[in-house]
Automatic annotation (TrEMBL):
Protein name, per record: Elongation factor 2
Keyword Acetylation: no
Cross-referenced Pfam families: GTP_EFTU
One MF annotation (Gene Ontology) recorded for this entry: translation elongation factor activity
Gene3D superfamilies for this protein: P-loop containing nucleotide triphosphate hydrolases
SUPFAM superfamilies hit by this protein: P-loop containing nucleoside triphosphate hydrolases (SSF52540)
GO CC annotation terms, alphabetical: cytosol; ribonucleoprotein complex
Length: 175
């Protein structure tokens, strides 16, 4: 959708930054856990698709100068990167490091007017997805499902789904 140039389409990569505007309306259900101040539930998101390769870093720098925030998306076009072929614990540790590193970077540009801009999986502000397979989720999706199944509070389940927490199906207890 944003790779509009012939050379981008041919190579399957973004070379020049491209902007599009997206309208999004959040449901009251999606916003129920949000505690901050907000004005309505309708959002206009101006998305800038910028190159991810280091050779095009000047394009990324130019795009970042006009943004209020960033959405980082890592993609795989063909096959699977070796570092993504890991077991569950290694994947968790890798995701945790990426999130911590992103939060460290965001903290260096902290602005009190923006409030807390860091991301937290246990608060539902990190999404995991596979574009190739057409799925995406936040921990909120699983918290709802399991909270209903086990008859526990959804916010407690959110806290347990990220971090050093383990569920023992034999005892039906969390460690």
């Amino acid at each position: 959708m944003t790779d509009t140039r012939a050379d981008e389409a041919e190579r399957g990569i973004t070379i020049k930054s491209t902007g599009i505007s997206l309208y999004y309306e959040m449901s009251d259900e999606s916003l129920k856990n949000y505690k901050g101040e907000r004005q309505g539930n309708e959002y206009l998101i101006n998305l800038i698709d910028s190159p991810g390769h280091v050779d095009f870093s000047s394009e990324v720098t130019a795009a970042l100068r006009i943004t209020d925030g960033a959405l980082v998306v890592g993609t795989v076009l063909k096959g699977c990167f070796l570092e993504l072929q890991v077991d569950g614990e290694e994947a968790y540790q890798t995701f945790q490091r990426v999130i911590e590193n992103a939060n460290v970077i965001m903290a260096t540009y902290e602005d009190p007017l923006l409030g807390d801009v860091q991301v937290y999986p246990e608060k539902g502000t990190v999404a995991f997805s596979a574009g190739l397979h057409g799925w995406a989720f936040t921990l909120t999706n699983f918290a709802k499902m399991y909270a209903s199944k086990f008859g526990v509070d959804e916010s407690k389940m959110m806290e347990r789904l990220w971090g050093e927490n383990f569920f023992d199906p034999a005892t039906k207890k969390w460690d």
